Fold each of these.
Amino acid sequence: MLPGHPPEILAPAGDLECAVAAAEAGADAVYFGLSDFNARRRAGNIGFKELPGLVQKLHGMNVKAYLALNTDISQRELAEAARYYAFAKFAGVDALIVKDLCFAEFRRHLGEIPLHLSTQAAISSSSGAKFARQLGASRVILAREMSAEEIKSAASVEGIQVEIFVQGAMCFCISGRCLLSSWIGGRSGNRGLCASPCRMEWTDADSGGKSRPMSMKDLSLLEHIREISRIGVASLKIEGRLKNAEWVANAVRTVKTIRDSHFKAVNASQLGSYAGREMTDSFYLGKTDSLVADSSRPKSAEPPGGGTEDKPANSLTVAIEEKSAGKIAVRMTLLNHESARSLSSEVMVKRRDEGSKKNLILSQELLDSVGEKFKDISIEENSSFPEFLLSPSDFSRVQGTVAALLNKMSKEPKESLKFALPDELLEKIRRTVRRCEFRRGKFGFEEVRISAAQTKIFKGQEFDFKFIVECKSLAEAKSSAYALSGNFIIALPQVIYEKDIGQISSIIGFCTQNGIQLELNNLDEIPIAGELHAKWSAGPGLAVLNSFSVEVLRSHGACMATASPEADQTKLKELLDACELPLAVYVFGRPRLMQSRCGIGAGRRRISERRGLDLLVENENGFTILYPARPFRLELPGGTPAIFAADLVHSPDPAAEIRSWRSIPAGDFNFSRRLR
């Protein structure tokens, strides 16, 4: 940010109305998403046909337009994501907010658009800001759990702008690192469909008490805007792409008043009343407690702006036409009043005489079945038949057709984007590579992940696999090197902050001098490894879903990568077929489902939710770690072209599980279901 230049006010827009309202209220820039590849896929979002006109309108009001494409991209989605990139460039978008590294590769083929590295990328230090600059990004959106001093350090890096959230909801987990939503039910927060498990009620296994231990207060840094401006932050971001236009406009006016009126504080409590949650600035002040609370204010009766009227969303018209003797056509047309979209289907039935038959038009059973499954449905009939009796089987067919229409109506038709891509880019996306076979050891895998504390269990023993040892200090790295004198890899932490950079540099320097391979687990560590010429692989903290991201990691020094545990069977096969680097796939373990800087009590405990999902909660090195009590296991063919790995960091008996992992009761995460 230029000295003396006020920071930009960046407003959320879940739809076209919100975007215009934000601009009219005085926002300097507006961010929004299209139908896919954005972290708020449940918002109304902007249609393809609307985008060029919206950008033109915003530019006419001297407001910038930022498009969020900030989700993980699978191999099959690369071509579509590239079309989004090309279309955004055509529409004149001012910047793309991205998480997946594949967008850096798109720039080489499709021309430059300014890239803003999303908070989903979990950049949390000045070293991470340097990586964003190396990647070619013009801005980095910092992790929300950073303190003022940490933000100041990142903002001091030359050649890269810094953006932070100053108002809105917060995730319990560090952004971009949550696997809990997809673990529970195949809806990935990293792909824009978070099921909000941290807002759920959980039961403590010991006390039996019920609470919401992960439900965060809302973030509010409005009283710190003067200081935030002084430390070099370029953009003040408001969270809220699921809010209505009036709330967005009110939020923009509030932030603008504070920024422009000599930074005079105003009462911003009304911005949080929609959710009934307290507000907090604890992270900014360097505190990691008092961040979680059940809603302590009564929720507003309706959202700011007055809410919506109670109108039927759909109406069903049943038309009955006599075709021939005894043959009747029942045509059902479902109309959605909001979108003016209609769907129709026809069923041929036989008209019956009276007696133990069901009346189609007047049947309370049909009305009840529709009402139970689908709310706000009105049924009309345009037939001259006062009664229409059907056999039970024909009635069930009609009933099933109505249900199918309503289900189909609830799924918005996906717009398809027709935009030409260069042949060389398409060829690169579609290519497959010949992969070598990997050695399967005695126990069925090549790598085993353990903690530094677990090395003593295996000290002096010979195994035909590599150990990956999670180390948080130079002392742990040295002791691990002593205990495991054979083939092993030192894994660095998944999250680091400014205070950790010296320690991380020491570990990397030690490993480089002693010929020990490293595993990096966040973008902040990559510049340090590059400066010290370390040999490194990309671990679970840098897990990938597409080969373009692997290519970017390789260009920065990676010799190996790790497949995302959120890949289902199809996504994993497509990824393996396209990757040139060796790829690790975890076939057994208890993955780190959440990592939070927020403290929620001391010690180790077990919590469960109403469907029987059990999680273990640990406090570790200043973080709260959540992982499943029950492991997952993938049944992959022996010839799969990948490095099979097992994660035993949270195993109750790692030595025994190495030998018996194939028989331990386990699920398979997202492997056998379609990840959304």
Amino acid sequence: MTIRLNSEKRATLLILALIMILTTILAGCTGKDAETTVKTIDTEKILSEYRSILTIPRTGAAYPEKINEYIINRITEMGLQAETDSAGNVIVDVPATAGSEELPLTILQCHTDDEIAVSKGILFNAETDAILPDVYRDDDAIYGNGTSMGASGAVGIATILNVIRTSTQHGPLRAVFTAGKDGDMSGVKNLNAKYMDGHCLISLDGDKLGTVEVGAAYATTLRGDINTTPIATQGRHAYVLVASGFPERAAAVTDADEPHVNPVAIITEALSNARSAGILYELHEFVGGTNALRVPGEATAIVVLNDYEEKKFLQIFENVAKEYRNDAGDKATITMIETPVPAEVMSNEDADKALTFLFGFLSSDFSAATDEEASLCIGRVALSPGHFSCDISVQGRDQEVVDQIVSEQTNIEKLSGITITETERIPGFMKVADDESVQLLCESYGKIVGEESKTANRATVSELGYLREKNPDLQIMSIGVTIAKRNTVNESIDRNTLAYPANAILKYLNEENPTIA
């Protein structure tokens, strides 16, 4: 049977159909009506970009030119332009999509360098060789093949490039790839303030999956150094004191219940206990660490002993080693190894000055990052016949607390006779009241991770403090994947979480409220 419609009914149905079509089109244009309108990034795309970045040296003579060239080539492929400044930073401006031109500028930021740890016995040159990720060690975790993963910066670069390539709805965007974060932070220090003229900045340097970190610790770095007098060796037996295999990590203001073992502290305590016991050993060398802002992974010292002091010194060292081994972990080594007797040592007077200086800082209530408000870290010691120097950082969530701790160290100067000088003051900022940007990023991140996201005050010194100085009104937030045992040869990341930060940013950009002040 054929149903015939009169002209009036046909017109009505046609109008209804047109209304439905227009509604669908408008919903798709706004991107607000359904979750499916937010384009997402597949994990394999992040992983592929990440692997490509690991083939490029991001330290040494080839840095930052090689990685900057890679970033610029990727940006050019997208039809955009990149600018490189004199400090080695790369800046990319991405125009807003149609209809979103009036939104405030969002800045995406990450650093381009990464420190690479290498296992003993592995032939690897971080300045020339590609990092080889081993994704087959287990189903989810990605490890290096005898090295750390260079994960922090590399994942950040891969994330930002994929966000720019994928996002179909966003306000004005700027990507800032900063140089030298794991060195002297020269990139952010010398970045022109005009590049920080946005409303909010999302950094990819966070390391707590599902957490939006806000703020950065304040810090002052200190140095003590003296010239020492070399003298001829008198003893007959020499030993290398070794404390190695500890996770080298950023010094941080953290919970007192967490174990924080500094190998410099282990050897300092052994040497100080031996002096207190009346053992007149000679000290040839004491070295460990790289800079004030990192807890060393290894420290060694060379002592020279006479026959009658040897057994007693060995027992004192072993007693100290026993105290630390429980917190040291399976990978750590605390031992003494006999070695050829060096020709020179430093005078006992100079050795005592250096040990008094070190022990004074290690005896502080804030040493080894064991206080929730502040921390003190001996990050580098270098003592040899002719010279002694040591770098220390004092960090805290309040600049006044940091200044108070620094002022209290004058007693160490008096006791040791070594002058303490301030070498750098690193800016920080406290957590500010959550504005709409923080709330929106938390909501977006939580939906991607599949559980409620939260905010946390960042406990470490960060290059973000310098960026905040360039624009005190800039809302700065950090997100990232969880990186286990960061900057160690056992560093790993969960491959299933690689795309989470990128998709959280896409969702944030899609849902950003144009009324944000």
Amino acid sequence: MRWRARHRRYDVNTMLVLALSSTLTLGSLLAVEATPSPTLMSTAAVGGPQAQVPIALVQAKGGDHYAVYTKADELGWPTLWVDRYNASGARQWSHYHEILRTPAGNGYHNVRAVATNSQETLYLSYYSLLNGGTTGLIKLGVDGALAWERKIEKCRGSASLLPLPGGGDVIMTCGTGATRRAQLDGAELWRQSWTPAQTTERDHKAARDNFNNVYVASQHEGANTHGTTQELALSKFTAEGTLLWRTSVPYPKYKQPSMLGAFVTKDHGVLVALVRGGSDGKHEPIELLRFNHSGAHQGTHTIETGAYIHEPSKHPVIVRFDAADETAYVAWDNRSYDMKPATEWRAVSVRFSPVEDPRLGEAARPVARRAPKATGSKVQPSDSVAVAPPGAGILSKQAQQWVGTVQQQHTIADPGHDFLVDMDVDGVGRMSLVGVDIDELTDYVRVTTLSRVSGGELKTTRFRREGRHARPVDMFVHNDRVYVLAEDDEISGPAVGSSADVVHLVFRLGGRKRLTSPAKLPAPRPK
């Protein structure tokens, strides 16, 4: 009776949902939900007579964001530009930056990493071939004004930028170490290096937790404690530069793990995503390895790709992680090593959860044991090694075991999906993918949104300006909008012509078509 009394207050739609929920699972409910269709809302060319190359989109608060690109000067040398946009796609300002040059002159440079902090300050690191190679770090204010620029010594490898919250300092990982830079003037506060002797560390990814601890995952080559030549190395240190622990997982000979990303979990562990590389010509799997807060390896989930992913930097594998839901989202395509167009795009989501022991009625907590030498292609866990006091947050070396379960699995065999470029996930776990559609030697930007159920429907659209060829470079999703930075050219293919533009695109997921072209602001003259 009590249920009926409450039930009378529901409207017709609510009653229908209640009736469905009594007979259908959540997965089948998702199967009938409408997948939103990407609709182009606005397009704007960040134009100019010189060739331009888009680099990255960086999200600030809400849907506000920065577009980073280079533009050729009168002599053909690239110069660095940053534009700020609001969530509607309207450009707020454009900033030209002349990098440090000693002596002054032209020289090629490229941006290695970009990031923002809670105050929407923008940090950029770049590498220049001038003077035998120079790495620089730039800080721009929210108004586009240059706050400071610093030359970073002994830094040639790939870099990650980890701004500290509250408008604080920034930590830059680079090569085999890290440096912390002061917020106000960029001065070096400390420098940390963690590479053991007789090893080479490269291809690293970094992440920061909400206690400002920094995690770095990298590939190791050379002598190590496992007696192998390859291993995944994982380090954790404080914002003050104190190394808390270092751990590693061995890989068999000729299996070279290529880092895809490092992500902090909600219990202050870390999830590492990598491609288990090799030279045997076989399909290469993607591995997701979970570690707890003290560095103990808790489990590995393997995703069979059906593709020979030889070099992820040229053959993108995109990984996103939702720490609150313990879910990793992974997308890739099956293009061949000779870079012919793909015949399939694939996307998978994997949720991690602790292993339940029915005898105990709770999650089993077996003691971590020292790993045997790696055999075949199986990856074995290893002990973590505390090289400094672990701190009050570390309770024990007993590692709760976790397993990954596939939640979504999609295969797109549509011939319009030729080269996958990027992927992002909205707040409800829906994946949007962007790539290149080659149609009779014409390049289009292809945007595809997937349903939240395995094998469910997809909605897709493509874009190019009349008589032009468009190729996406970077994207992100915020609320119901997809923001894309693309290269637009008179010629097709990967080469950049003398009349290339950077194009800024905004797509809406669902809703009515509303296409506008924001007025282009006049570009400031180089100083």
Amino acid sequence: MPDRTGGMRAGVFREALRKANLMHPEFLLSVGDLIDGYTLDPQLLDSQWKEFDQMVDTLDMPFYYVPGNHDISNEWMEEQWRERLGQPYYHFQYKGALFLVLHTEDGGRSGISAEQGVYFAKALAEHPDVRWTFLFMHRPLWSYGNKEGFEVVEKALRGRTYTLFSGHHHNYYYEADGSGNERLILGTAGGGSYLRGAEFGEFDHITHVVLTESGPKITHLSLDGFVEKDVVNEENRARVETLRSGDFVQVAASVSSRPYVASLEGRVTIENPDQSVLDVEIRFPEIEGVRFQCDRAAVSLGKGETVDVPFSISASNGGAVYLDRLPPVFVEIVGTYGRGTVSELGLPTRKQWRIDWQRRMLRDDSARRDYEALDPPGYLTQGWDWHGPEDCLLHFSLSSLVDRLVLRAEVEDDVHLFLPGELSDRLRLYFDAGSGAKVFDFVPTEQGELLAPKGYTGAASLLNWQGKLIFQIEIPFDEIGLAADSSQVRFNLRYLDHDWSENQKPSRLYWKPEWGSEEDFEGSGTFIIP
């Protein structure tokens, strides 16, 4: 059974179990990620395991548990696993075959401990003449550069025939070596997936295995059909991954000097990393009042070829385009390998054209403020716990005095969580005056105080903390390396929205892309200082 969680889609795993039960196998094994996990709350964990166990109780055959990173996310969850299910790693024999269940989250962290490596080396040494050896593990450590302890098990497997099943990545892959050893990364059975088809390794399925005299026979039963075991393999994987990831195309960001333009230029860069010809079609969105111009909307690229395709926008009526009024602009790029052949692979990918403009900072004036709004936030990370503006809404303004910047931020949040440590609700400010990023965390408390970073010399206070939080922060120029005659500064803001104390991954709401992330682009969040 493949991954259930990590973006779980309700009801899919239950249906997969129902269909597996109809096939009457001898038993079922998972590759982990059975519950959402990532918690330290006993009641929440208990409810998650009870819900899963109730599904397993409907089966007519045994179910063997394999731990994934959601099932054992920390040391405490590993202790809970042991109390409920016993040892997270184990082995057993059935009709002359040896089954090894590996624990790739040993100690609540990715990898296999030395102790576990010794355990499986011993188990393999004690069973040299089995019909076949099967390994089940969550993370496909065998495919990583650093095998995180699996190299000990791999060494002990030398000289025998085996089949290895893993999961974690939510997209299917198959390979076999010259000795007949097969290694599979399974797809999903309800875990997060774009479900773009079996040919891209994105499908919900059950894996059926029959051990014959000549070795295992493997078939994947999609929840709506059958899938060959080598649907994604060593020969086609590079093309599949190129199209599935969308990494073959980039849309360069554009930064204007003003919020309205007669036209704005952009650029699409396409790279073909494969041996085969890549045909690409570029499609632009329909936006009222805006016209896209592109002279090369269809291109073909040979092996290793890179092509830059310029485009531009302008107002349909010949006037100006107001950048702040534009909706998010997504360019669709359709890549196709083997066009017109039986092995044709085609898939669209959407890339956002990130647009920004340089804002002119006001001189501080309490009677006038130009507010920027995170409504919705420009960028989210770990955003599954943010439920929209009714959950958390933030506005801010940034202005300047002779020797300091003044930030005022207003946060409306349905739950303000004031905790000790890194998980408390907090405001993070980023500045770059040309000498590198400076980062400051300001943490509100339930007593109405605003805790500033150690050694911070500016003023920082909460003007209101019951209901709406209102931050008033003065940042001295020398704190961020800003000279008195500096003409501009790059800025970003993040709010950590944390709604329940057991959650270890609260949502992070950014005004501009997280600095240093793949979405970050030069010039975003630039303010011109008067």
